[in-house]
Design brief:
The chain is mainly alpha-helical and 84 residues long. The chain contains 6 helices and no strands. The protein has one domain: 434 Repressor (Amino-terminal Domain) (Orthogonal Bundle). Helices cover 56% and strands 0% of the residues. The termini are far apart.
């Protein structure tokens, strides 16, 4: 069975406000753990990974180029964390 037969359309998932909202750097750590362990990591990424910096438009563009995840997604992760 293929995944396309299981998923017909995307669904919106709402989290309860009391649930933990990860910092966007946690998303980067989780998705790219193997690659981050074995790669040269630019200083600005290390700064972000240590949660010293929130995602803004400029950083979202840099992260998109570094990860191939859209700038809009990075801004969404930041908004989700800060508004709840």
């Amino acid at each position: 069975m293929h995944i396309t037969t299981l998923v017909k359309e995307s669904q919106t998932v709402n989290r309860h406000n009391s649930l933990y909202r990860p910092h966007p750097s946690d998303v980067l750590k989780r998705r790219f753990k193997k690659n981050l362990d074995n790669a040269f990591i630019p200083d600005w990424v290390l700064h972000f990974l240590n949660e010293r910096q929130d995602v803004n438009a400029k950083l979202a563009e840099q992260l998109a180029a570094f990860t191939n995840i859209s700038p809009e997604a990075w801004l969404y992760y930041q908004k989700n964390m800060t508004t709840h």
